[in-house]
Design brief:
The protein has 431 residues and is of the alpha/beta class. The chain contains twelve helices and 19 strands. Helix content is 30%, strand content 16%. The longest helix is centred in the last third of the chain and has 26 residues. The mean pLDDT is 97. It binds (2R)-2,3-dihydroxypropyl phosphate and manganese (II) ion (MN). The site of (2R)-2,3-dihydroxypropyl phosphate has 9 residues, from loops. Pathway: Cell wall biogenesis; lipoteichoic acid biosynthesis.
């Protein structure tokens, strides 16, 4: 019912942060290019195999003076994996406790998503993906989010060439070359999301695209990861060069994010080898959930920011950079650039990381040191941990209430024009 929203709105309001005057509105009117780095983990940044950087181009971009990067940024996905990442980034709502919210609710629910907000700022919005439109129910969900365009596989001239495909769709380099032809035609300012796929388990790559040795953990499902990550790095570099040549680089805010882990926790021995350790514990595995979140724009005050946050926090961060207030939104993130944020990162299963402590796999640790703690031994610690857990549980439950009850149909924030799904069609017409 509509009244179910009242306490949720109050919770969201209590969570709202102060604007950071250095960054709020700093990128107003810029094009936004969201670059989805499939299965890309933070540890890959500056990582070397036998003395060789795996991702030299991303590393350079990461350290650029106009790049703002977050090195305590976690993926917060559940079973929806990619779909959950997209859901959080575009709507500020978590994926659901089980299944994929994009699949189960994306068609019918009402959302107030980033594309719709930006549409009202005069943006053209488009998503790009080199596979079938129906994967993760993107074709329906994107209508609910208000995407003007969705360029899926049939739109790309090279899509039918078998040798141009591998794994989950078109090879990233080819996909991005073809996508660029559409990106350059979008009326500006635009918001474009490019979903890469090649760096996805099982990390298959054709010989000609292999340019770095495999790792030697001995775990066959793990050792190819750096090869497809390297390919993704090169794909990004090619696209970046094109952006520079086309002039878009100077007029755009480029955002990169890793959607979730590439190497699952079911490979602790291999993870230990990659980290140069004899073994890994739950603390290491929590850190393993870090993914990159990187924002670049000409003139942006860059640096590596150590705030604790995650995918749920992206929507307010980006909208605020673009000068769009989220004060009236029902969303669960906190601007990563706000100085009074809570720095609590909920995982989908109820575990969490905060700037002070973390709970992971039933264990508690001091976040910065990895010291294992028993909350029962210290009443002060126990209280903080209980409060944090209550906050995390509430946030996940409220988000689930919004998703499963389609509660946003009862609420239209001030200044928001409702999305009419029937306004959109992504079918490729002939000719
Ligand atoms: C498929 C791609 C992969 O389109 O996004 O999804 P994932 O398996 O990573 O959730
Ligand atoms: Mn994914």
């Amino acid at each position: 019912k509509a009244s179910d929203l009242d306490k949720i709105k109050q919770f969201v309001k209590n969570n709202s942060t102060l604007q950071n005057s250095v960054y709020f509105g700093k990128e107003k009117g810029k094009n936004v290019i969201m670059f989805h780095l499939e299965s890309f983990q933070q540890f890959l940044i500056d990582y070397k195999v036998n003395g060789v950087e795996v991702t030299p181009n991303l590393n350079k971009f990461y350290h650029d003076q106009n790049t703002l990067a977050f090195d305590n940024f976690y993926n917060e996905v559940g079973q929806g994996k990619t779909a959950d990442a997209e859901m959080m980034l575009e709507t500020g709502l978590f994926g659901t406790a089980s299944g994929s919210a994009m699949v189960n609710y994306g068609t019918s629910n009402t959302y107030q998503a980033v594309p719709a907000w930006l549409d009202q700022q005069g943006y053209t919005t488009a998503a790009f993906h080199g596979d079938v439109a129906s994967f993760w129910n993107r074709d329906n969900t994107y209508k609910s989010w208000g995407y003007d365009y969705f360029f899926s596989k049939p739109y790309y001239k090279d899509a039918d060439n078998a040798s141009y495909n591998i794994g989950y769709g078109m090879k990233d380099k080819i996909f991005l070359q073809d996508a660029a032809k559409y990106v350059e035609q979008l009326p500006q300012p635009f918001y474009a999301k490019l979903i890469t796929v090649t760096n996805h388990y099982p990390y298959d790559l054709d010989k000609q695209n292999i340019s770095i040795e495999k790792t030697t953990t001995g775990d066959k499902t793990v050792d190819g990861y750096v090869q497809t990550a390297r390919y993704l790095d090169q794909s990004f570099a090619e696209f970046l060069n094109w952006m520079k040549k086309s002039g878009l680089y100077d007029k755009s805010m480029i955002v990169l994010y890793g959607d979730h882990y590439g190497i699952s926790e079911n490979h602790p021995a291999a993870i230990a080898k990659l980290m140069g350790k004899s073994s890994v514990n739950k603390y290491d595995l929590a850190n393993w959930q870090k993914v990159p979140f990187i924002v670049h724009a000409p003139g942006l005050q860059g640096g590596v920011n150590h705030t604790y946050g995650g995918e749920i926090d992206v929507m307010p961060t980006l909208l605020h950079l673009l000068g769009v207030s989220t004060a009236n939104d029902v969303q669960f993130g906190q601007d990563l650039l706000a100085t009074n944020r809570k720095q609590v990162v909920p995982f989908r299963n109820g575990d969490w990381v905060s700037a002070e402590y973390m709970k992971y796999g039933g264990n508690y640790y001091v976040t910065t040191t990895g010291t294992k703690i028993n909350p029962k031994e210290d009443p002060r610690v126990k209280e903080i941990i209980e409060q944090t857990q209550a906050y995390v549980n509430k946030m996940l439950t409220y988000s689930d209430n919004v998703q499963t009850g389609d509660l946003l149909r009862f609420y239209t924030p001030e200044g928001f024009k409702k999305v009419k799904k029937s306004d959109y069609s992504y079918k490729k017409s002939d000719g």
